[in-house]
């Protein structure tokens, strides 16, 4: 008998934990692709960076894989089907890696962080800066799939240009309902969606006038909390019971070019965090015009 005569469950463990010869992996891959995988592997951490990924198992083992993009996609696809991951980091994302991003919505994981790549700048205080890229493939359907499988999500440098204010409202409602796995998400959106969401969800109108950002609302009961920071132009939070909704605008320096980042984040918080943030931040009362200078 050969190794291929072993039960499927044992072959699956061999594939997950051993660095096998390429020829045998091809034979095993063909067989595993035809299986309905009935057991879940548990992995501590998976790091994906450009043309390689590093997998750390719960047994303390660390294995590094370096493959071309098609082979990496195949491996990630199989891992997504049968692996529970505590933490996943995907870095150096570019337009070439959309298929890798697609796989991320399939993983069962506690924490997922996706980021683009860094470039040098001309500023001594910030020698490198993350590059902004449009990510039109991240829509509400993608976020809905993520919400079923991932507890905490953070996206850096990826502008979700397909998301509308209505999509953001639905995502917020999904997390608030506590009927999905997701408890927090932080992402970048387009400026129009950012402003429209504030208006649609909270009735807040934003206008830019001569280095003044003006926020106004007719809702006197609305409570937003502002945080002053030299890194942010605009940082507001709303606490609806234990759900925090955050709006942040920052400047992104990429070489000599300056771009504005529009971040929206939703997160379920405990009472201690909510009370601490309310004390730390400045309460904005509406029914009149609030002005933020930048």
Give structural attributes.
single chain; 294 residues; alpha/beta; 13-stranded mixed β-sheet; three-stranded antiparallel β-sheet; 8 helices; 18 strands; 30% helix; elongated; coiled coil; F-box domain-containing protein; F-box_dom; F-box-like_dom_sf
How many DSSP E strands? 18
Shape: elongated
Q: Kindly provide the radius of gyration, computed on alpha-carbon positions and rounded to a whole number of angstroms.
A: 22 Å
Number of H/I helices:
8
**Proportion of strand residues:** 35-45%
Quick rundown:
This protein is of the alpha/beta class and 294 residues long. 21% of the residues are buried.
Structure characterization notes:
The protein has 294 residues and is of the alpha/beta class. 30% of the residues lie in helices and 40% in strands. It has eight helices and 18 strands. The chain has helices at residues 8-17, 22-32, 69-82, 98-104, 140-149, 165-177, 191-202, 271-280; strands spanning 41-49, 52-57, 62-66, 83-93, 108-116, 118-120, 128-130, 133-134, 150-159, 184-188, 205-209, 212-216, 223-226, 234-240, 243-254, 257-268, 282-285, 289-293. The strands form three sheets. Strands 1, 2, 3, 4, 5, 8, 9, 10, 13, 14, 15, 16 and 17 form a 13-stranded mixed β-sheet that branches. Strand 15 (243-254) and strand 16 (257-268) form a beta hairpin. Helix 3 (69-82) packs parallel to helix 4 and helix 5 (140-149) runs parallel beside helix 6 (165-177). The model has no long low-confidence stretch (mean pLDDT 78).
